[in-house]
Amino acid sequence: MEDKEILEKFQNPDSRNLAFNQLVRKYQQKVYWHVRKMVIDHDDADDLTQEVFVKVWSHLESFRKDSQLYTWIYRIATNECLNFLSAKKKRFFLPLHDVAAELAEKLDSSDHFTGEEVQLKLQKALLRLPEKQRLVFNMKYFDDLKYEEISEILGTSVGALKASYHIAVKKIEEFLKNN
Amino acid sequence: MEEKEMNMNGVPKEHGFTTPSRYFDQLPTRIMERTAYASPVGVTAPWSWVKKLRPAFAAATMALVFVIAFLATYTFSTISSSSDTSLASVSDTEIEQYLLHQSDLDAAELAEFAAVSPPHRLEFIEVRREDVNLDAAMELLEDKNVTESLLRDEY
Predict the structure, then answer these.
(1) Based on the structure, what is the number of domains in chain B?
(2) I need a surface site. Which of A45, B2, B33, B92 has the fewest CB within 10 A?
(3) pLDDT per residue over A85-135, tens digit each?
(4) In this predicted model, what pLDDT tens digit does every residue of A60-77 receive, in sequence order?
(5) What UniProt keywords are attached to this protein's entry (chain B) (predicted)?
C-alpha cells in the first residue's frame, strides 16, 4: 500500500486501524534496524521501536505532507535513539566513552549478533564515533539513503553530512587498520 | 587508495545483527495492542470534551467555594446580630426574674457579680442595698460566733 493511501485511510475512523497496521508492516524493519544499530541491544531496540510507532500513531493526524512519510518516521526514530542514549549517560553519570564500552560489551555477549569478525570490528569502530557521525554513517552505508534524505531527517546541510561521513570513514579505516 | 579498499571495501554491507525468530511477524500485533490505549492527537475521543473543559470546571468550582464561603459568613453574622437585638429587647426586670428563679443565685451573689463587673451596677440588677448590708452583717456575725466558740473550746 502506498503512503498516500495509508494516510487517506488513516483519516477515516473505520479504516484507521487497518491503515496503521499496514504502515507498521511496511516500516517496522527499517525502524527496528535503524534503532538497533544505534542502541545495539535487541531488547532496547524492541522497546524503542514500539515507542516510535506509538508516537507515529499519536501524531500521524498532525503529519504535514510537505515531507515524506518515511523520513518523518526516521526522524522520530532518530530522536528516540538520541534521547535513549542521552538518558543512559545521565542515569549512570558515564561519559560517552563508557557508554560506548558498555555497548561494545553487549555486542560481544549478544546472542543476536552473528556477523563475521570484520563486521564486529566495524560495529566496535562505529561505537567510538560521536552519535551524529554514527547516525550519518549508518544511514549512508547500511541504509543507502541519499544525502538529501539524511539532511531532511537530521536537519543538517548536505555539505555538513558529506564532511561528517568522510570523517567517519577515515576514523573507521584507522580503527580497522590498527585492530 | 589500496589501503582504503582493503578496509572499507572489505567490510560487507550487512550489519551482522539478528532478531529472535518470527520477531517481525509478532511485532505489528504488539504495537497495535499498545496503540489501542493511545488516542491519536487531533482525533476526538469520547471523553475528550471533559479534558478541554477542565480549566472551566476548576474556575467554576473556585467561584462556587467563594460564594458558599460568603453566604456562610453573611448568614452567621446576621444570626449573631439578630440574637443581640432580641436580647436587647428583653427588659432588665425580666432578666433579674429569670436569674432569681432559674438559677441558685441570691441577691448577695448578684451584688457580688455587679462588684466584679463594673458595668453591671446595682441599679441595673435592682438589688436593694439594705439586702446586701444584711447579708454582710449576717456573715460577720456567723464568723464572730465561730471565733468565740473556738476560743472558748481552746481555753
Answers:
(1) 2
(2) B2
(3) 998 887 766 565 578 888 888 888 888 888 888 889 999 999 999 999 999
(4) 988 877 789 999 999 999
(5) Membrane, Transmembrane, Transmembrane helix
CB < 8 Å to A62, chain B: 41-42
- Cross-chain Cβ contact A113/B32 below 8 Å: no
Would you state the cell numbers that stand for residue B89, as one nine-digit string?
429587647
Q: Which of B89, B114, B147 is the last residue of a domain?
A: B89
Host H or E run for residue A137: helix A131-137
Contact A115, A126 (CB under 8 A): no
Least Cα distance to A59 among A69, A49, A46 occurs for: A69
CA distance A38 to A81: 7
Of B15, B24, B39, nearest to A119 by CB-CB distance is B15
Mark which of B37, B59, B89 sits at the end of a domain.
B89
Which of B35, B37, B41 is the best residue to mutate to test the A interface, defined by the most A CB atoms within 10 Å of its own CB?
B35
In degrees and rounded to multiples of 5, residue A65 shows phi and psi of -80, 20
All domains of chain A in start order, with CATH: 1-95 (1.10.1740.10), 115-179 (1.10.10.10)
Query: A113: left (phi > 0), else alpha (psi -120 to 50), else beta?
Result: beta
Closest C-alpha to A129, from A166, A100, A159: A100
